[in-house]
Amino acid sequence: MAFKSKDLSVLAYANGFTLWHYTTADLATDVDTAGYFSTVSDMLRVGDMIMSNIDTDGTPQAGILLVASNSGGTVDVANLTQVGASNSD
Predict the structure, then answer these.
(1) Domain count, the chain
(2) Model-level pTM?
């Protein structure tokens, strides 16, 4: 699939930093590919964090993506840092 701007929203903003939320059925390996978020390069800054719900129609993952670079209209985020990866009853 592809990035959908309607699924990206601001959670908090302060001091030039934005905390975002993004949800998608796409796989983490697709979302963290350079260029995935490039259509909103004018909104994302290096250091911003994106709380993410990934692969929502398959094996869901949740985690944090860090905007690692944004140059020439190409956004690259670091690989997903997964949260809640294990559940021991």
Answers:
(1) 1
(2) 0.92
